[in-house]
């Protein structure tokens, strides 16, 4: 039985039966119809083989399509002959490139006998797996198949799995799908008479015979739980019963060597049917002029009736009039009326193709009431009973794949799966029936004929003109009925479509709203909305200042993120101007980030800003967590950033020196508040001029807390992944990954340097390479011309004392060693003291330039001295690190 579609050529003289048979329920077999079917000879095209093609290997002979060597075999049928250096020398034959050993061929029936292993699991082993056969790497031309060459249905057998030993489970697994296809178990009880209990798995009962790779998996039963004992190893092997005659006990005791054989069927897999294959003469395999093919048609002399019983194919009386011997009937014409006999034991009363039944009764026999009193005979008749029959033990799905043996041959027939009882067991198979609108015999070509429904109006109602069609009929109404029916159908259809359209629109809107709601809920949970809600609600002050907005509120505030509301955009996202329902003007930050780590930074910014209340720190009104990336809602600062006002395109900043000092003082105060005055120390980690916003009165407000980190008051630093902006990044933090409050001090020192010089943290001088402002300043200090960096406007508006002290403060903030830097509180006090100095200018800076540079030189020397003294006891590594940092900041 082949479930993969294919074909095989038959030899001269095989008439009446096809080349394969399949055991059916009640011994009904499936095969091509015999007798005088349509005969087709091969084409005249020859298929020459090389003259040197081997025909044998050792004592095994074979024929084409099998072969060894180039041009000697059909694709997928190559063999390998291996020689062994024994005395005398021997040879072994293998399929393909040498993985499956061949024992013998049955070329007439398309069978290959192959060697399979004996799997042994030791007494002390609890489980063991071993491959029985694996043809997955072979072309799809082989399949496990029963030996179907016997003429008697009783002797038809198939490959089996034999498992012998005590207390074991055996599972047969299809390697292609890693699924268990069957199993059996052996049990040995203490009072068991045999130490070698066994079980078998028969492949005949499988619904699908297309397994080409099998593995046996052996496990021991729980001996204590089932009161079993284990005295022997487990042996398992696959074999063909017709070739298995050895003494099992000797094999299990190890006194006899066993070579197990398994049957494989082969076939041509290039085309599913002979008819299609013959259309391609260059690849058609059946080249002999003596081969025959068969079509399911009947001779003219087939009886269709015996007595009162009608005979339908696949049953028949004459030779060639039945499908195979399982459907053979005998018409006994000597009786009056003639009787129809089935299997020489039953009398057929009736048969039904549609129901798949035979109504039979046992033949008559004589019996006596009593030999002691009389010998008058009586005739006894058995009660009529029904035999169910089906075609083969396949389902329709698998049977249809082999078109040469599929029983439902009429084009107007269909197949249906059936299950019937046989000795208490459910047996599966299939039966054929004509399609609706047809009647007749579906097992014959053109056996199903069209029913003329118009000729039997009692069975097929038509209130109008009846017109018979193939497989049905049409009932045309009268003209008046047609008009009325058309109007009715039109109105009904229009109303139905209108109602359906309205319903569809309403349902679609509801579905979209429900979908959007679920998406928003998912984003809310992904963005830690519950945690943030809990954080906000746990603090009454925070709850009053911070709100979690819905996406609807944000869309309304920004007019659905209208482009005219855009305040600015960049690589990280867009900021929109929005108006809340309470008429507050806000800035809404819509980021482009999608990484989870960056979303966590967003949530971190919300968590930090919600706990801060300082006049120089941008106020957070709330956030929206119903989008993929959270949205921040904070107070609207109308006058841009410090960087915008400081680094103008024409180089002429409008910020006065007094305004710059005030902005620096306010920024220092806000940072000092974050470091020490807040409930928990907050390190900003990204202090820069573009993160300092200015309102209409040029009041400074620190923003962008996405990179900020919280640090307990009893700790001095935390270890984090390095993050910040180039030019502002603390070199010590860059090297050690230790984030401290002095890291913010270094960044603030760079801002002071920007306010003093008007230059960007990374700048270029004419056509020179880009320079790091901090390192450039320190080098200028060393070379005693730092005043050359001061912006002209600052030089005019600032006093000598102010500039001198500012330069010294900057140098302190930019110390490479963080311990030597001042705290933000100290920086704030220093800047406040500058502002308290009288605004009356001293002598112009230019008049005392040499003196000022000398003072800075002395001061610088003191700071350098301090650094040298601090680092004097350090290892050479630190000096190398300073050189590395210097080269890092000296950009090329």
Automatic annotation (TrEMBL):
Cross-referenced SUPFAM superfamilies: EGF/Laminin, Protein kinase-like (PK-like)
GO BP annotation list: cell surface receptor signaling pathway
Matching Pfam families: GUB_WAK_bind, Pkinase
Keywords: ATP-binding, Disulfide bond, Glycoprotein, Kinase, Membrane, Nucleotide-binding, Receptor, Serine/threonine-protein kinase, Signal, Transferase, Transmembrane, Transmembrane helix
Domain Protein kinase: 561-835
Principal location class: membrane
Transmembrane annotation, as ranges: 483-507
List of residues binding ATP: 596
Protein localization: Membrane
Signal peptide: 1-37
GO molecular function: ATP binding; calcium ion binding; polysaccharide binding; protein serine/threonine kinase activity
GO CC field: plasma membrane
Bilayer topology annotation: Single-pass type I membrane protein
InterPro entries, sorted: EGF_Ca-bd_CS, Kinase-like_dom_sf, Prot_kinase_dom, Protein_kinase_ATP_BS, Ser/Thr_kinase_AS, WAK-like, WAK_GUB
Keyword Glycoprotein recorded: yes
Protein name, per record: OsWAK receptor-like protein kinase
Organism: Musa troglodytarum (fe'i banana)
